Amino acid sequence: MTAFVEGRGSKRTGAAALVLLIALVSSGIRSAHADGPDGVAIEARAAAERLGEALRYRTISVEGGGISDADEFARFREFLRRTYPAFHAVARRELIAEHSLLYSWGDGPEAPVLLAAHQDVVPVEERQWTQPAFDGLVDDEFVWGRGALDDKGSLLGILEAAEHLARQGFQPARTIYLAFGHDEETDGTGARAIAGVLAERGERLEMALDEGGFVLEGVIPEVERGVATVGVAEKGYLTVELSAVGDGGHSSVPPRSTAVGRIARAVTRLEDNPMPTRLEPVVLAQLRSVAAELPWPQRLALSRPWLFGAIVRSAMDSRKTTAATIRTTTAATVIRGGVKGNVLPRRAEALVNFRILPGDTSAAVLEHVRETIADESVEIRTVGMPTEPSPVSSADSRAYVALSRAIVSEFPDALVAPSLVLGMTDARWYEPVAEDVYRFLPIRLQQRDIDRLHGVDERISIDSHARAIRFYVRLMSALAAP
Question: Could you give the C-alpha distances from 160 to 146, 213, 217, 375, in angstroms and in order?
Answer without folding.
Answer: 19, 21, 25, 57
